């Protein structure tokens, strides 16, 4: 099950579980759309994988299967 991480690893922007701005790779590294398009050229800086739109978990499932609250912020891994 996807963790639904709460923020962009580059800029630390909040990405709630219902955000259509979240992008992930196959390892669930999480970035905002702006960083993916403007800084990362569509590729994960951690693994080199493709970054795609993160699915939105239905609100009715979030209580039983909540999004992660662990923030990962690694701006040094992201190009300026």
Automatic annotation (TrEMBL):
This is DUF1272 domain-containing protein. It comes from Metapseudomonas furukawaii. It comes from the Bacteria. InterPro entries: DUF1272. Pfam families: DUF1272.
